[in-house]
Structures are given as C-alpha cells and as structure tokens.
Design goal:
- The chain is α+β, with helices and mostly antiparallel strands.
- It has two domains: 88 residues; 52 residues, no CATH class.
- Helices cover 36% and strands 18% of the residues.
- The chain has six helices and seven strands.
- The strands form three sheets. It has a three-stranded antiparallel sheet with strand order 2-3-4. A two-stranded antiparallel ribbon has the order 1-5. It has a two-stranded parallel ribbon with strand order 6-7.
- A hairpin with a 4-residue loop joins strand 3 and strand 4.
- Helix 2 packs across helix 3.
- The radius of gyration is 19 Å and the shape is globular.
- The two termini are 30 Å apart.
C-alpha cells in the first residue's frame, strides 16, 4: 500500500497559505530514462520537462504526497540518510524542480479537480457514484463523512461507497452507518 495522506472538503476552497506553507506534489510525473545515465521528468499536466540525474528522480518518487518543500526535505532526509550531509543542496534541488513546473501545487490541483467536477455536473450524463478510499484513518473518514452529510449533494449523486483498506483492527471496525 502507498503512503498517501490527504484531506478533502466539498463546497469550500482551501484556505490561502503563505509561500513557505504552500503544498506541492510530484504525483503523476513520468520518469523517462534518457541517454548517458540521465532521466527526464515529465509533467503531462503542464508539459514541463526537466533533465536530472537518476538519484534525483529516485528521491522525487517519494514526493507524491502534498507537502511543503520543507516537509518534503525532512521526509527525504529521513528516508535517505546520505542526504543529511547536504540538506541545503537537497532543498535547492526541490526548489529547482518546483520552479521548472514538475511539482503541482495543491492550489493548482484544487482548480483542476473542481473544474473537472463543474464540467461533469453541468452535463446530463446521468447519476454519479462517490468513492472514498481510506486506510487506517477513522477520524479523518468520520470528519469527511460528517462534512458530506452537512452538504446538499447534487441530484446526480446515486451512491456513496467507502473502500477501507485498513490493517489496524480498530480502524477496520469503524462503522459509518447509513444516514
């Protein structure tokens, strides 16, 4: 199972964050092997490309969750001890990758996801089903379900499915109930 952590709220835009708190992710970035032991990072959402060393691409595979650059740096330092000797260089590379358009900001993802949702809700393609994927996060699931309950769902919502891949017995035994 992957290490995915996120929160989502329907009906409200995320609060504005300062630059140091802005969240970034490399999710969806393709890693293309190139000549002479080089790798091309390709972000298909904005057509951004960056030529990097394989070690950089390997490190960025750990940056798929939305985190601030400082949080990404700390995560990489924990996961890759040799980087601890040069944290300034690692942060500089993360900033370079961000500036090259390889990272996607949480704000851009929000715009992309809500634009798609608005396009889908304006069409008359029929009912939709909502799926929530979770793993060992009963409190977050409960908050999300409460937020969904407080919203007025569009008429096209036919069903809501919770797919729980929890390994912890306490998390797996959480019951949502029907409302």
């Amino acid at each position: 199972m992957t290490d995915i952590s996120f929160s989502y709220s329907l009906g409200a835009q995320p609060a504005q964050t300062t630059e140091s708190e802005r969240l970034w992710s490399c999710h969806g970035v393709r890693i293309i092997p190139g000549p002479a032991n080089a790798v091309v990072l390709f972000n298909p959402r904005n057509d951004a490309r960056l030529l990097v060393q394989p070690e950089v691409a390997h490190a960025l595979e750990r940056c798929f969750c939305f985190r601030s650059l400082d949080q990404h740096l700390n995560h990489l330092l924990d996961a890759m001890p040799p980087l601890r000797e040069q944290p300034e260089d690692a942060l500089q590379i993360l900033e370079l990758v961000r500036d090259a358009g390889i990272f996607e900001s949480a704000d851009a993802a929000w715009q992309r996801l809500t634009a798609s949702a608005n396009d889908a809700s304006s069409s008359d393609d029929g009912a939709v089903r909502l799926f929530i994927l979770t793993c060992d996060r009963p409190e977050a699931l409960q908050r999300l379900l409460k937020a969904l309950q407080d919203q007025v769902p569009p008429q096209q919502v036919e069903a809501l499915f919770v797919i729980d891949d929890s390994r912890d017995n306490d998390s797996a035994s959480f019951q949502c109930g029907r409302h």
